[in-house]
Amino acid sequence: VLLIEQNVHFAATVADRHHLLAEGRIVESMDNDEVRARESELLQYLGI
Q1: What sign does the CA torsion over 31, 33, 36, 39 have?
Q2: Its domain of life (predicted)?
Q3: So what's the pLDDT on residue 48?
């Protein structure tokens, strides 16, 4: 299942792996622990 979501909290509740895309390419892959540890950085990256 592919989920496209900007809500980091929601995504962490339904997925165990996360991939960030930029210009159609995967630029980051991480698990929930890494997402939680880097949440503020990821929110800036997403422009939220």
Answers
A1: negative
A2: Bacteria
A3: 64
**Helix (H) or strand (E) run with residue 28 in it:** strand 25-31
CA atoms within 13 A on the CB side of 7: 6
Whether 32 has a pLDDT exceeding 70, the answer reads: yes
* Lookup: tokens for 10: 């929601």
Average pLDDT for residues 1-7, to the nearest whole number? 87
Helix boundaries (H) for 1-48: 8-14, 32-37, 39-46
Which residue is listed with tokens 């698990």? 31
Structure token pair of residue 2: 């592919």
Burial category of 13 from C-beta neighbours within 10 Å (exposed 0-12, middle 13-18, buried 19 and up): exposed
Does pTM surpass 0.85? no
